Amino acid sequence: MKNNYGLNSIVEMKKQHPCGCNKFRITRVGVDIKIECTNCGRTIMLSRVDFNKKIKKVLMEVEND
User: Fold this and answer.
1) How does DSSP classify residue 30?
2) Residue 65 lies in a domain
3) Does the residue 18 lie in any domain?
4) Which H or E element spans position 13?
5) How many domains does the chain have?
6) pTM value?
């Protein structure tokens, strides 16, 4: 599966955040990926490998020029 996510993309994760939302915005892309909950604003830092295992789908893809 080709990952079509980038900075500011909205993604849906397999497990939801304790606040009840499973939609996150990507705020940092590198070796680690930082995501922010769209409901409560808390941030989570994951390794790229863990993130690729836990992502369900990309809801909104953002083009970076």
Assistant:
1) S
2) no
3) yes
4) strand 10-13
5) 1
6) 0.86
Burial of 33 (0-12, 13-18, 19+ CB in 10 A): buried
Closest alpha carbon to 55 in 25, 31, 30: 25
Classified as helix, coil or strand, 44 is strand
8 Å CB contact between 50 and 34: no
Q: What per-residue confidence (pLDDT) applies to 1?
A: 45
Query: Can you read off the two tokens belonging to residue 41?
Result: 């604003």
CA-CA distance, 1 to 42, in Å (whole number)?
Answer: 28
pLDDT in tens, 2-29: 578 999 999 999 998 999 999 999 999 9
Q: Please give the residue range of the domain that contains residue 42.
A: 10-60
